[in-house]
Amino acid sequence: MNINILLQEPKIEKQVKITIEPLAPLSIVSDIPGTYYKAQNTPDKYKLCGVFENILGWHFSKNDRTKISKKIKEFNHKKLKNKSYYSSQSNSGFQPLLYDFFEIGMTFTNHGTHYNDLWKRSFSRMDADVHAKGSPNLDYPILREKHNALKSEDLLSFFKKNKSSFPMFYTSPTLREYIDYAGEQFQIKLTMDTNLYSLLAIALTDNSTAYLGNNEGWVEIKIEEI
């Protein structure tokens, strides 16, 4: 995997157009959605960073992203003498690697159909009985014991003794908004680093699909110079 572009000075000179064709309803939410996941009509810069890194196959863990971002910061401070440089991070904790390599221009989109649906969020509370209450799947031998613990109102003690039989996460139904574009495309004009454009153009000849918003929001991507 070639990530050498990250230790080069961005040359944001290429005028390009990204065409996104949703293959499923999209739910692109804000960084801190709260209890209701309100959908955005178009992706912001953080979301596009995620799309581009997905296309390039950059599926890094949070720890790896932190290490890479540290190297990028050192490169900017020492090599480019940019002492004011800092690594961008969204309010949700996502640390993009390509944030400095493009700028968003005009966006052209069509109105889709908005609707709400229940979506399961995953949580972990190993110190509270809410974890046991929200875990629908667990080892078969302790199902009856859990039922008895619920009746005796001693679920927390039971949970602490049997944590290894419970999943690491429990789920909570949450209202989430989706937008169905019904096959319509939307386009975004960008000014992009020339090397990034070349990498994306090559990658898209092999696989032109990615996900946007969440792992249900599959899209077809096309990029072209303008």
Word description of this protein:
The two termini are 28 Å apart. This protein has a five-stranded antiparallel sheet with strand order 5-8-1-10-9. Strands 3-7-6 form a three-stranded mixed sheet. It has a two-stranded antiparallel sheet with strand order 2-4. It has six helices and ten strands, in the order ββββααββαααββαββ. It is an alpha+beta fold and 226 residues long.
Q: What are the salient characteristics of this protein?
A:
226 residues, alpha+beta, five-stranded antiparallel sheet, three-stranded mixed sheet, 28% helix
- Helices, by number, come to 6
Number of strands: 10
What does the oligomeric state look like here?
single chain
- Helix content range of the residues, please? 25-40%
Shape: globular
Order of helices and strands: EEEEHHEEHHHEEHEE
- Backbone CA Rg: 22 Å
Give the strand order of the largest sheet, numbering strands 1, 2, ... along the chain. 5-8-1-10-9
Ends distance: 28 Å
The biggest beta sheet reads: 5 strands, antiparallel
Count of domain modules: 2
Roughly what fraction of the amino acids lie in strands?
25-35%
* Class based on secondary structure composition and strand pairing: alpha+beta
* Low-confidence region ranges: none
Average pLDDT = 87
